[in-house]
Amino acid sequence: MNVIETDYKRLQALVEKQVGRVMRTPRDFDFLAVCIYNLTKNQISSTTLKRFWGYLKEGEKQTPRIYTLDLLSRMAGYKDWDSFVNAVPAQQESEFMNNECLNAESLFRGDRLRLLWAPDRNVTIQYEGLSMFTVIESVNSKLSQGDTFHCNHFINGEPLHLYCLVHEGGAPTNYVCGRINGITFTKL
User: Is the pTM higher than 0.85?
Assistant: First the structure.
């Protein structure tokens, strides 16, 4: 991956974090187009966004126009594309979040969630009550079927901290999922 592609991926991740949604479906891209309009008062088509994210067939992928890059950079909190590229990525100690959140106390025993995080982790968990979960299925993750852990809440786009994780019958430990780009969750 070259430097420009790395910048594109970093911009995509920042925009997804800003809107609290990973771009996976046509509906996500429609949502993002509306968010961009609401923030910038500039129109961008969901098809343009799909091309930039590589959602469309590879033959349809094109180098994005500066207009597209400027709008997405503004969505990520920068003045324009040049400001984004020239900025040193900085971690903020504190910030307000409006990402979708799910509190464990709102779940019922037996409810299931699917957790996804980079690069291709896919874990299904079941709520057992009292903020405790059991791993039902794990694909490409260090978590194993039957592992149990405690977790109070899930926030899309943020790291997920698991407490008192009992992994394969071992001693309780703590674990973080999606430390860099966060996780996404879906209630099944």
Answer: no
